[in-house]
Write a structure and sequence with these properties.
The chain is mainly α. Among the domains are: 266 residues, no CATH class; 42 residues, no CATH class. Helices cover 55% and strands 4% of the residues. The protein is built from 13 helices and four strands. A two-stranded antiparallel ribbon has the order 1-2. Strands 3-4 form a two-stranded antiparallel ribbon. Strand 3 and strand 4 form a beta hairpin. The chain is elongated and about 95 Å long.
């Protein structure tokens, strides 16, 4: 009786599975038995742990409260802070005029009650939309000795005592009425901007660039080069496996080791910062989207670097030297992408596209970041204020660091689309490198 032929897909895919499994197992076994693998991965873990410890220490520090508008002072010495007297309509400069003379008398507030009394209302901020309002009631102008004027509208939006956001050129600015949100909570603002700065800064520099290029530089550049140097490549090419398959499966072996490593580090760091970061709840769930973007960028970036370094090692036995030189270029472009993201030349680097992915997901997770920065950088002043100029010239603590790391995406203006485009660019780079490596490797004489 004739043997029934097996389906074609069973023949093809079973052979591919056996080839892939064999080379994957070989690659992972080699990684597992090499001391350099554990050294490289351990350095990454130590880097993450040390950086997280600095983050925890910073989040436990406090910023001294500053009375930006000066209304916690008791100018006339009657025991009542100027802010309370202003709110209730008594004189700040006459000790015989104070709320204690009312019927019934009103007890004096503590001076601390008039420090950080104004909040920042940015969670629902939109361009041109009224925000802020007068939280402590000092947005009023005294008229001689007859009383107080009506609510003022210095920003001319027909709404008294508020502020709104407006684009002026390329900058988002705060256009405010006098004495509106001029005494915010420095510590709360600092903690929020510090947390976001850490997530973005460590995500971009630590994960996407340092680990993203450091790990493949030492673990991927030798995927083919070391086999040639050790003479073990003869055993691979002698098998019924095409050289293109060897390249692909060796790279997949690298991915099987490195991607879980990056994902695990991102998950651990995300959990720690989620619990330690400032939040109204017990955990900052909105940050998970940012950490997903960081993990995705690190994985794709490390794959692109791995394909490039493997190709360099395939072309020449001194490909490691070229990889180090290329790493210097990538470092320069990574710094340019972080601090000067509008520079077009940075798009010629691999690291730039990883930064775009992180920026895309951070814009989706924190849509209020531009408004947070604008409020921190606000330098608007009011000569009509009875308290004089606002103390905003140096900006709020943490603003400068956050504005350095946070950037809006500039490819399409849609953060999700920009992240997808950047992912596509990195995957395209991997394919191009594999094509180049295959064309070189299939014609290469193996000594």
């Amino acid at each position: 009786m004739a043997e029934k032929p097996r389906p074609l897909h069973d023949k093809v895919w079973s052979k591919l599975d056996r080839k892939a499994t064999a080379i994957l197992e070989l690659t992972l076994r080699q990684y597992r038995t090499r001391l350099s693998t554990w050294a490289v991965l351990s350095v990454g873990v130590i880097l993450v742990l040390i950086t997280v410890l600095f983050y925890i220490e910073a989040m436990n520090s406090e910023i001294e409260a500053v009375d930006n508008d000066g209304d916690s002072v008791d100018s006339d010495g009657d025991g009542y802070p100027d802010g309370q007297e202003n709110l209730l309509g008594t004189s700040m400069n006459n000790a015989n005029s104070h709320p204690g003379l009312f019927d019934p008398p009103i007890p004096p507030d503590s001076a601390e009650d008039w420090i950080n009394e104004d909040g920042y209302d940015f969670s629902s901020a939109k361009l041109g939309t009224s925000q802020g309002y007068d939280d402590d009631g000092d947005c009023r102008v005294k008229i001689g000795e007859v009383g107080w004027s009506s609510w003022v509208d210095e920003n001319r939006n027909n709404i008294s005592c508020d502020y709104f956001f407006e684009m002026r050129g390329f900058d988002l600015e705060v256009i405010a009425d006098p004495n509106v949100d001029e005494d915010p909570d420095e510590d709360a603002y600092f903690k929020e901007t510090l947390h976001r700065s850490f997530v973005l800064g460590f995500g971009k520099i630590g994960f996407v660039f340092v680990l993203g290029i450091f790990v493949p530089l030492f673990l991927a550049s030798g995927l083919i080069r070391d086999e040639i140097a050790d003479g073990t490549l003869h055993y691979l090419v002698a098998k019924p496996i095409s050289r293109a398959e060897i390249l692909l499966y060796r790279l997949l072996g690298y991915v099987a080791l490195v991607w879980p490593y990056f994902i695990a580090l991102a998950v651990i760091t995300g959990i720690i910062t989620g619990f330690m970061g400032p939040s109204d709840g017990f955990f900052r769930f909105q940050d998970l989207l940012v950490w997903f973007g960081i993990a995705l960028a690190a994985c794709l970036l490390s794959l692109a670097y791995a394909a490039l370094f493997m190709t360099m090692g395939t072309i020449h036995k001194y490909g490691m030297v070229a990889a180090i030189v290329f790493g210097v270029w990538e470092f320069a472009m990574a710094m340019l992408s972080i601090f000067e993201p509008e520079a077009t030349v940075s798009r010629l680097s691999i690291s730039h596209w990883g930064m775009v992915i992180v920026d895309g997901f951070s814009n989706m997770a924190w849509p209020d970041s531009q408004y947070l920065i604008a409020l921190g950088e606000s330098t608007s002043r009011s000569s009509d204020s009875p308290w004089g100029e606002r103390i905003y010239s140096d900006g709020m603590p943490g603003t400068e660091a956050f504005s350095s790391f946070f950037h809006t995406t500039d490819l399409t203006g849609n953060p999700l689309q920009d992240a997808l485009i950047a992912s596509g660019v990195l995957i395209s780079m991997v394919i191009i490198m594999l094509v180049i490596a295959q064309s070189v490797f299939k014609n290469k004489e193996i000594d």
